[in-house]
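Section: Multi-chain targets

For targets with more than one molecule, the full set of components is provided together so that the structure can be written out for the assembly as a whole rather than chain by chain. Components appear in the order listed by the source. The example entry contains two components.
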Amino acid sequence: MTTAMLVSILMTLIAASTPLLLAALGELVAEKAGVLNLGVEGMMLCGAVAGFAVAFSSGSTALGLVAALLAGVAAAMIFAVLALSLGANQVATGLALTIFGIGASSLIGAGFVGRTVQRLGPVFPAALSEHPVLRVVFGQDILVYLSLALVAGVAYVLRRTRAGLILRAVGENDASAHAIGYPVIAIRYAAVAFGGALAGLGGAYFSLALTPMWADRLTAGRGWIALALVVFSAWKPGRLLLGAYLFGAVMTLELQAKAAGVAWLAPEVLAMAPYLATIAVLTMMSLGRKTGRLDAPACLGKPFSAS
Amino acid sequence: MTSIITRRRLTFGAAAASTLPILGRGASAQAPLGVGFIYVGPIGDHGYSWTHDQGRLALEKEYGAKVKTSFIENVAEGPDAARALRQLAQAGNQLIFATSFGFMNPTIQVAKQFPKIKFEHATGYMRAENVATYDARFYEGRAVIGTIAGHMSKTGQAGYVASFPIPEVVMGINAFHLAARKVNPNFKTKVVWCSTWYDPAKEADAAKALIDQGADMITQHTDSPAPLQAAEQRGVYAFGQASDMRSFAPKAHLSAIVDDWSGYYIKRVKEVMDGSWKSGAVWGGIKDGFVKLAPYNDAVTPEARKAADEVTQAIASGKLHPFTGELKDQKGEVRVKAGETATDEMLSKMDWYVDGIQA
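Its structure, encoded as tokens over all components, is:
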């Protein structure tokens, strides 16, 4: 294998992992606050279509990213009103949000089929971003760097700051958090909005960076992988980063192995690998504990009412 | 048993009765003919399902108020398709097009329950009194783009982004490769199976993997324009699938195989209207207008252009069959003898690859 090929594979791998990382990190924060939002796929699609529509109409990819973020938040707010304010079942509401997102994005996107926009470009100047080797580090777009910075940021806030402590308290024991005066519902709204924003950006990564176009169901189920990653990571940002890149690596290597004609390993085995890894990690985690709760926030998925 | 049958009849009776007042069927000869479609993908895929929907729109344009078309998109291949077909049948459609290979068994099954409704199944091989099949000889188009690839490739290697190893796809790969090998005897075609018809990000990554392995011509048998975009990004050439996809990759897009179903749909609807519709199997190619080539990119060399035009004309006039012997599979076994051509029967069951293909 040549260096050029290795660099190229790494570039593909990073690009495949980034939307998973963004969407999963947002969901991690929402779940840390005790909210299980299964609507990730729907929010990603809303972000993808809004990002594309605005980038196409305005000619500005940056505006597209802002629109994607806002669309993700807007979709998340639908969920929040139903599940948090009105106490609807979170699983059912989240699933409904995904189905809604598929339909709404298809409706909005109908006029944009067959169009394309400028691909989201690298941040650094060409001398660095087109260097044959250094482009692995410097040739990435803004969302790659943002996703990595956010992992560090979320890890720091959750573990080291008072705000993170309050967020976790709301997710672990909502009644106690309420009793000592924290606005449980408001905090959960904020966490869900953050999740929606990142899911929107993750979706826009498809329509603006990976495949700069709009086509129905563009994300093709990546939202569900993001949800699985949160469990895989045991709600820890560092491990989420590892998991997202592991999934990205396996998805990329599966195709590379096929293209290289690797015959000794059936490609189907590689395609199964991330899911096998998920099962293995979950099993190992539950073996070490008596509770079998896998570190899930104690109030995950439970509705809260202040009365 | 009896009670079940009776109940089923009752249900159907009720369904028919309930649609009667709405459609006014039988009340007047002016009632529009209901024509239903089910698609495997979204019509927004700008690929295979989109081309079928273009055929549906052509019907509306041709017949205006005389037809009433409806469609269901994103129908999963398998049992779900039976539900979608039944829904269209019960809604009063007289002619129903099931447009993907995996709808075959459900179509036969539902057609038995609605003997008066005509069904048309694309790319399959099971027929009945009220089920006809139709298909396009896409492999003829693939022979043309294979010719262009053979002329234009510098590395002598093409990457093929494929969906599933069904005969339809396998014959496309062989036709492409055979045509390219005719130009360049050392030509190699590498295939990556995506195990999906539609997953833009995965299709793009598959194309990138093939380019990493040395392919400078990308062609595909999946439904989205994503592989073309990957080719454009990496500065290699590619061919569009099902429709003209030039807008996605103005530099990379050399040509495309364009499906055109509208002529067939218009003809079959007319036959239902005048009562001459009969079950049968139609397999149309370049000659019949089912398969067309998108305009060549300026980058296509005069030499490649000339060769491609010659192949197109030879196929249309019947002088050239893309599968002319002698053809050997990868084990060296002769599949088509020298001087003979592959029969349609052989093509529709093709499960072997010619030498030089890595699948």
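Chain B touches chain A at residues 41-46, 50, 74, 159, 190-196, 198-202, 204-206, 208-213, 215, 224-226, 229, 233, 247-248, 358 (CB under 8 Å).
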